[in-house]
Design a protein that fits this description.
Helices cover 0% and strands 51% of the residues. It is an all-beta fold. The protein has a single domain, classed as Jelly Rolls, CATH 2.60.120.
């Protein structure tokens, strides 16, 4: 019997139907001993639609949110992964909110909470987006 896959903690799981901007649930991050946060985004495209972007965002105060990963999808079934290294030095950054370049990430900065910001255009049919996170 095949061993079940461990996809990590579910951060976001939604059907994508109409064009909209949506914020996922805020999830607390236990930062003790964490070196990497790995993300796995699964875009199960059905048909139609235009673009769908999922921004992994972090905050240290719950008010100012900063993009740390941008997953960009269009009209194809895709699975993407990204790993943000917490110990990589980073210069002073201006937080972006839903504007990080497609399929890029920013390492070195993790607040005490994470959320997903999803921005989609066009009307999708039978399409879902699932994002999982693992702390390492």
């Amino acid at each position: 019997m095949a061993k079940p896959r461990n996809l990590g903690k579910a951060l976001y799981s939604q059907s994508i139907l109409t064009a909209l901007t949506e914020l996922g649930e805020e999830i607390a991050i236990d930062q003790e001993g964490v070196i990497n946060l790995s993300f796995h985004a699964i875009f199960a495209w059905g048909s139609a639609g235009t673009t769908c972007k999922a921004f992994v965002q972090t905050s240290i105060d719950g008010v100012t949110w900063a993009d740390i990963v941008c997953f960009a999808f269009g009209v194809a079934v895709l699975s993407k992964i990204a790993a943000v290294n917490v110990i990589t030095p980073v210069a002073v950054l201006t937080p972006t909110d839903g504007t990080l370049a497609d399929n890029t990430l920013v390492s070195g900065f993790i607040g005490d909470r994470i959320r997903i910001k999803r921005i989609s255009a066009g009307t999708y049919v039978a399409t879902t987006l699932n994002i999982f996170m693992m702390q390492q």
